[in-house]
Amino acid sequence: MRGVLILCAGFALTVISSDLLLRSRKIQAALGRVVIVQAIGLVAVVAVLSHSHELGLVSVVIFWSGAVLTWFGLRSHLESSILLRMVHMLRERPMTGPDLIARYASYYGQAHRIDELQRAGLLTTDQARAAMTPTPKGRLIARLVSRLR
Amino acid sequence: MTTLDAAAVLCWCLMSLGFVGTRSRVRAFNVICLILLTLVLVVALSSAGTVRSADALVLLTGLALYWIGLLIVRVMLSRSVSLHLLLACSSGHDQPTMDDRIAGRLDDARKYHLVHQRADVYTVSRFGLVLDVVLGGLYRVVGLR
User: Fold this and answer.
1) Boundary-marking domain end, from A79, A105, A121
2) DSSP type of residue A1
3) Are residues A74 and A110 in the same domain?
4) Residues A99 and A67 in one domain
5) B104-123 pLDDT per residue, tens
6) What is the DSSP string of B15-26?
7) Contact B78/A at CB under 8 A
8) Which of A29, A40, A58, B114 is deepest in the core (most CB within 10 A)?
9) Which of residues A40, A60, A79 is at a domain's end?
């Protein structure tokens, strides 16, 4: 079971490193860097475990893929969930529906989200049409999302 | 590569294909994953003498986490407001708006008994308070305001 402990500790350290890298940035805006950190963590754990022959490569890679996907989903949900944030805001003080919606919009409303999409290189301003248009990367993700939905 | 390794890799691939193939039919996806995971468990039990128990434990945990992760991604795909904005901008038909989606989440909070509504004012329910204690801790841990 020493191998399992090494694997869990390695994954925990990699998640902490990813969180330190992100600080208050959204995970989806720094996905490339997070993927690099996770890949380094996986390679390091595989290297350590290959010496002791305590766990097979397939086991480690499958565990890592599942753990990373779950962590990514939970972290992303925590950052962007409107419902959770509304509950958090209501705990500070009771509000009417319109007040709460306005408060949320000022916290992380449409302008913030568009700004985030721009910083992630998914949207750009089309000066001629005075509108937002997707970048090639944004179009690719939009196509992918449409197929998976 | 052992038989269990091969079964786990096949299970991982079929879960991924199931995720793409079932789209928003979450129940069908869950049934597929449950059957696949059960089959891998049967393979693990039948090869108990030849495979290390640590390997079997890690493989099964990894596959279960992958299933959970894919379910969370499914929720993101169907509910993410940022993705909705990106899709709206990509379609180029109209300017996107998210006000109706924000209002919809307030209805969800009421449906899940996270908030109460008295007259026009919303307050957090007892269940919502418990959730918020956990949530507040998590927000602090990941450095969110």
Assistant:
1) A79
2) -
3) no
4) no
5) 888 889 899 999 988 889 99
6) HHHHHHHHTT-H
7) yes
8) B114
9) A79
Domain coverage including residue A47:
2-79
| DSSP state at residue A28 | G
Interface of A with B in 69-98 (CB under 8 A): 69-70, 72-80, 82-84, 86-88, 90-91, 94-97
CA–CA separation, A123 and A56 (whole Å): 42
A-contacting residues in B 26-55 (Cβ below 8 Å): 52, 54-55
Same domain, residue pair A66 and A90: no
Of residues A52 and B7, more confidently modeled: B7
Q: What does the alpha-carbon distance between residue B142 and residue A79 come to, in Å, rounded to a whole number?
A: 9
Whether residues B75 and A77 touch (CB distance < 8 A) is answered with yes
Contacting residues of A for B87, CB less than 8 Å apart: 142, 145-146
Cα–Cα dist B12/A87, whole Å:
36
A-chain CB neighbours of B78 within 8 Å are 149
Examine the domain organization and report whether A90 and A66 are in the same domain. Answer: no
- The answer to whether A69 touches A35, Cβ cutoff 8 Å, is no
Residue A113 contacts B, CB cutoff 8 Å: yes
Suggest the residue from A22, A38, A77, A84 to mutate for an interface test with chain B (most B CBs closer than 10 A): A84
Residues A98 and A110 in one domain: yes
Tokens representing A110? Answer: 């449409």
CB A10 within 8 A of CB A62: no
Residue A50: pLDDT over 90: no
pLDDT in tens, A128-140: 766 788 999 999 9
> Which candidate from B20, B112, B115 shows the least CB-CB separation from A90?
B115
Give the residue from B7, B5, B6, B1 showing the smallest Cα distance to B39.
B7
